[in-house]
Amino acid sequence: MKHVLAFVSVYAICVSMLHAQLPSKSIKDLLNADGTPNFKTGFKGSVNTDGYKMILGKNGKPHFLPAEVQTKAGLPAEAKAIPGFQTNSAPNSQFAVTSDDNDYWNGSFSNPNVGMNNQVFSLAVSGDTLYVGGWFSQIEGVTRNYIAKWDGTNWSSLGSGMNGYVTALAIKGSDLYAGGIFTTAGGVTVNHIAKWNGSSW
Fold it and tell me: CB within 8 A of 45, min separation 6: which ones?
């Protein structure tokens, strides 16, 4: 029990360090009219996703929609309006919907999904890059190991990623900080927190 409490304390401190005195903004303030990330706002920092869910649109492009529009009855109208989005229901899944155009309804921030093979826990923006951390190990079938970035066109990995899930992301200067339940980042031993300098951990 002592080891568990010590781990929880260290983890709580790491998350607090990530967010203390660092910029944060709601995702709703960083979106274009179609729900895609707006990289022209000039914002750099953590993104609060409360109240929103994500669709991976055609070619993996992320779209964010208010969570309340999703119901057990099916897709929200906003999802159907996304170019190329189709409404083929995925059997036995409340949230995941696929189409021939490779579009995905992501019940992330709380539920597994199809486009990313498990939950998304955290987002951060820096310039024209969206960083995503979570419990996923793949995006559209490609290995990403708990963290990845979207540059407006493509998803890519940050080195070899982590060996456990990422629950917090923050930006300071040109560096990305990640916190979570991991002990290696890019193959380097760390203690639940790591810094990405743009090319390595």
Answer: 22, 23, 24, 25, 124, 125, 126, 170, 171
Q: Are strands 52-56 and 104-106 parallel, antiparallel or unpaired?
A: antiparallel
CA–CA gap between residue 13 and residue 28 (Å, rounded): 28
Q: Report the sign of the C-alpha dihedral through residues 97, 164, 144, 157, in that order.
A: positive
At residue 78, the 3 state secondary structure works out as helix
pTM > 0.90: yes or no: no
- Structure confidence by residue, pLDDT tens digits, 119-137: 888 999 999 999 999 999 9
> What is the rounded CA–CA span in Å between residue 10 and residue 129?
29
For residue 6, report the phi and psi dihedrals to the nearest 5 degrees: -65, -40
Measured distance CA(167)–CA(160) in Å, rounded: 17
Q: HEC string of 14-52? A: HHHHHHCCCCEEEHHHHECCCCCECCCCCCEEEEECCCE
Report which of 139, 133, 142, 140 is spatially closest to residue 185, judged by C-alpha positions: 133
* Residue entry with tokens 């540059």: 151
